[in-house]
Design goal:
It is a single chain. This protein is an alpha+beta fold. It has helices at about 10-15, 20, 40-50, 60-65, 70-95, 95-110, 135-150, 155-175, 190-205, 215-230, 240-260, 275, 280-285, 305-315, 320-325, and strands at about 285, 290, 355-360, 365, 375-380, 385, 395-400, 405, 440, 450-460, 465-470, 480-490, 495-515, 520-525, 530-535, 540-545, 550-560, 565-590. The chain has two domains: about 10-340, Chondroitin AC/alginate lyase (Glycosyltransferase, Alpha/alpha barrel), CATH 1.50.10.100; about 355-595, Beta-galactosidase, Chain A, domain 5 (Distorted Sandwich), CATH 2.70.98.70. A hairpin with a 3-residue loop joins strand 10 (about 450-460) and strand 11 (about 465-470). Helix 11 crosses helix 14.
């Protein structure tokens, strides 16, 4: 009997196949696909053989607590692991002794690290008796376990036994004895739960954790991942956004795949109803040619889905076939995992409906069609201001056309100590300053789960879609009587369009402002008219109401993005005063100037 959850450890023991456990689990020789970039892999491995192993020095480790900088320690920490895994792939494909020797150097070096965690996830004063486990300790264990699975008999005995010792000491015993000691083990609303438990489970299977560790770890991980999946929207949406959707599900599906194999399908987490449909989430978030609706801490560019995640969802789930269509449109992250070497699933499904309301997270995404890669797309969110990786963005929206988000979301800033602590809401990436929102007397939405908005209605039509939001409760109630936002997505024009209506009623007199975030070269062409110029087209902005509004151009300077780049962006401030106000703004995409006359 197939099941996607288990009642107790006994279920796990009965489902395990000893015959399967005696053979490679993650990848079998007969599964390797023909189109692997072998020459590129070999060339990269030859370079790694000559290069020194990246060094994550103590001074870099300590820097996080002194300046808040995370990059100097985390960059070599990540490089060390990605280099190790690439050498493992090269060794598997070629059998070359020089690749194997360098791989063992990397493994030995990583086993010598005092901790596999990032300093950002540790106390400033370490307790060396405490078995710390974070995202990156779990992922390190996953990698080492899977290297044992494929190359264990090739590794020197000293290296092989050292890996087993470190996995057992650092990961298996602490998680087996008391998983609840780790906050993330019950944080079903966070990617941490999926990454840590999924990676630990995958490591225990691939690394052949001995009993009683193996069965209990599998049981605990399966239970927690099912609860994590319960937190998904019924349509498959994830509140942390597409970046953390990719991160969490990558490690969940790696575990689920290994579990399916060692139980010969008797335990199949892929049968969870929400995992079956979640493949459509990134499909609807897709903004051609290579971006996604990036609400929350999600980068505005550079995000790539992991090949093995796409492959596994396409193989095991119905929603995964739509995801396979998306994979035909974009580049994926290759060679992140041995599973990326497997033969892929050919079957794909072209998306049908052009719009969706992810009700559980309260996002709406709509587009004119799927065929025109330069066509218009609108994404809008409600939700609340106490979400994981929260930003003050209830009612914020993205308008994307000509392959560019002219009205954009900044996404994620550079991760530092301050970014996730007391300085978070002083940062325009996370506070209201960096979003297209309403401001009252210079202030905007409140911080906390109680500050929320609702998508009241989403009406779809042949010529236009209409989205109505009630944003009243997102603001401090001492000033606000009622705030609604209406977005009309126009589909009957050549390149679409958007109408924004904001209606504000205060309890007393005040300064009322609607702010619009701009991505592109902004040019003023009248008192209340603007053009945003893009690479393949432009956007005309016509501010029709309020009649007596003052319109100013603001600038967000020296924004440090998640990838380390620094950029400046403009925004519009439409300002009026009184007890109530109505804003009516029309956005018209155009290629030639005479189209907007």
């Amino acid at each position: 009997m197939e099941m996607y959850n288990v009642a107790d450890v006994k279920d796990v023991k009965e489902a395990l196949s000893k015959e399967v456990l005696s053979n490679p689990i993650v990848l079998r020789r007969e599964e390797v696909r023909e189109d692997i970039p072998r020459d590129e892999i070999i060339k990269s491995c030859e370079e790694l053989v000559k290069m020194p192993i990246p060094e994550a020095k103590y001074s870099y480790f300590r820097e996080f607590y002194i300046t808040g900088n995370r990059t100097h320690y985390e960059a070599p920490h990540r490089s060390k692991r990605s280099n190790m895994y690439l050498l493992a792939i090269g060794t598997f494909l070629t059998g070359r002794e020089d690749f194997l020797l360098r791989l063992q150097d990397y493994i030995w070096d990583i086993c010598n690290e005092i901790t596999w965690c990032y300093p950002a996830h540790l106390p400033e004063e370490l307790n060396y008796d405490e078995p710390y486990i974070d995202l990156f300790a779990s992922m390190t264990a996953e990698q080492l376990g899977e290297i044992l699975d494929l190359l264990g008999d090739r590794l020197d005995r000293n290296v092989r036994e050292r890996v087993k010792y470190e996995l057992k000491r650092r990961i298996f015993i602490p998680f087996y004895e008391n998983p609840d000691r780790y906050w993330w083990a019950n944080a079903y609303w966070s990617n941490w739960c999926a990454v840590c438990t999924g990676a630990i489970g995958a490591s225990a299977i691939a690394g052949r954790a001995e009993e009683p560790y193996l069965s209990k770890i599998i049981f605990d991980v399966t239970q927690r991942l099912n609860r994590y999946l319960d937190y998904f929207d019924d349509e498959g949406g994830w509140v942390e956004g597409i970046g953390y959707w990719n991160f969490g599900l990558t490690h969940l599906t790696r575990f689920a795949d290994s579990l399916y194999r060692i139980t010969e399908g008797r335990i199949n987490i892929f049968e969870h109803p929400k995992l079956q449909v979640t493949g459509q989430f990134p499909v609807y978030c897709y903004l051609p040619p290579d971006r996604y609706a990036n609400f929350g801490d999600c980068p505005p560019w550079g995000l790539k889905l992991n090949r093995d995640l796409v492959m596994l969802l396409a193989k095991y789930t119905t929603g995964g076939r739509k995801l396979k269509w998306l994979a035909s449109q974009v580049e994926m992250r290759e060679l992140e995992n041995f599973r990326c070497l497997r033969q892929d699933v050919d079957e794909l499904e072209v998306p049908g409906d052009t719009s969706i309301h992810f009700r559980g997270i309260d996002w709406v995404i709509t587009r004119r069609n799927w065929e025109d890669r330069l066509g218009p797309i609108l994404a809008v969110k409600a939700g609340n201001n106490g979400e994981p990786h929260n930003q003050l963005d209830v009612g914020h929206f993205i308008f994307h056309v000509y392959g560019q988000s002219f009205l954009h979301d900044l996404g994620s800033g550079l991760y530092t100590r301050q970014y996730f602590r007391e300085g978070r809401y002083k940062n325009p990436f996370c506070n209201a300053e960096g979003h297209s929102l309403i401001f009252i007397d210079g202030e905007s939405e409140g911080i906390g789960k109680e500050f929320e908005g609702k998508i009241i209605s989403f009406d779809r039509g042949e010529d236009r879609d209409r989205i109505l939001l009630d944003l009243t409760r997102a603001y401090p109630q001492e000033k606000v009587e009622k705030i609604t936002r209406t977005l009309e997505f126009l589909k009957d024009r050549r390149d679409g369009g958007l109408i924004l209506e904001d209606d504000v009623l205060l309890k007393g007199e005040g300064k009322i402002e609607s702010r619009i975030q701009i991505n592109g070269s902004l040019e003023r062409v009248g008192d209340k008219n603007f053009i945003v110029r893009g690479r393949y087209g432009n956007l005309f902005i016509e501010i029709k109401e309020p009649a007596g509004a003052v319109v100013e151009i603001g600038e967000l300077k020296n924004l440090e993005f998640h990838d380390g780049s620094v950029k400046d962006f403009n925004f519009l401030r439409i300002i009026t005063s009184g007890k109530e106000a109505r804003f009516y703004i029309v956005f018209t995409p155009f290629r030639e100037r005479d189209e907007i006359r």
